[in-house]
Amino acid sequence: MREVDHIEQLVGKLLLLVTPLEDRRLHTDLHNFTHQLSCDRISYSAAALFHIDRSLLTSCIAAIAISIYLVILVEFGLPSLTTSVNNAYGVPNLSEISSYFVCIVMNMYFFVIYLFDIDSTLQGPQKTHTLLSLSLWTGLMVLRLVILAYSSEMVVQEASRTQRLVTKLQMLPVPASSGCQEELLLFEEQLARSPLHYSAAGFFALDLSLLKSFVAAVTTYLVILVQFQIPDTNKE
User: I need a surface site. Which of 70, 114, 152, 201 has the fewest CB within 10 A?
Assistant: First the structure.
C-alpha cells in the first residue's frame, strides 16, 4: 500500500516535469495512469469481511480489549457491584428517606397551620420568618430526594441502553476468531438475568416512581394531621 502511494507521488512529479507541448502522448499516459491509481485503489481483504492493513491491528487490539473488559465485567463486576451497592447503601438510604418523609410532613403541617392562621401563635415578621425557614428546609430535602431518585433511575436506564447496544453489536460483521460474539452474547444474557436496580434495604425501589409514592404519602398524612388540628381549634 505504501509503495502504491509512493508510485502515485512519483507519477505526479513526472506530470509536473513533462509538459503537453514536449510529449503529448507521454503526458496523456501519465495522466491516465494517475487517474487509474486514484480510482482503483489497491487493497487486500479477507473474503471482503475486513481489510488487511495496519488498521487490522488496531481492530484486533480493540476487540481483545473489549473481550477482556466484558469477561471481567460479567464474571466479577456487574452482579457483585449491584449487590455491594445495595448492601452498603440500602440501610442508609432507607433511614435518610424515612427522616425526609417525617421532616417534610411536619414542616408542611406547620407551614399550613401558620399560613392559614389555624394556629395564631405567630404573627408579623416572626410568622414570615418561620414560613420562609420551613419552605427552605423542605425545598432542600425535596431536592436531595429528587437527586437520589433521578440518579438511580438514570443508572437503570443506562443499563437498559447498554443491553440494547450489545444486541446491536452482535449484528455487526465481527471475525469469528476474535471471540467478541461469544462475549457479547454472554454479557447480554447476564444483563437479562440480573437486571440492574437499586432499593432501600429491599423496602422500595429507588427510581422516579418513588417520588409519586412519596408525594401521595405526604399529602395523605398532611390532610389527616390538619383535620385533627381543625376540630381542636373550633373547640377553643
Answer: 201
Residue 180 CB contacts under 8 Å (≥ 6 apart), including other chains:
63, 66, 67, 169, 174
- Beta carbons within 10 angstroms of residue 93's beta carbon: 21
Whole-angstrom distance, CA of residue 22 vs CA of residue 31: 15
Q: Which residues contact 156 (CB under 8 A, 6 or more apart)?
A: 196, 197, 198, 207
For residue 158, give Cα distances in angstroms to 53, 151, 170, 210: 35, 11, 18, 18
Type of residue at 217:
A
Cell of 213: 409514592
What separation in angstroms does the CA of 97 have from each of 130, 212, 233? Answer: 24, 14, 32
Residue type at position 113 = I
**How many residues are given for the chain?**
236
pLDDT tens-digit readout, 75-128: 445 556 677 778 888 899 999 999 999 999 999 999 998 888 877 777 888 889
* DSSP string computed for 156-171: HHHHHHHHHHHHHHTT
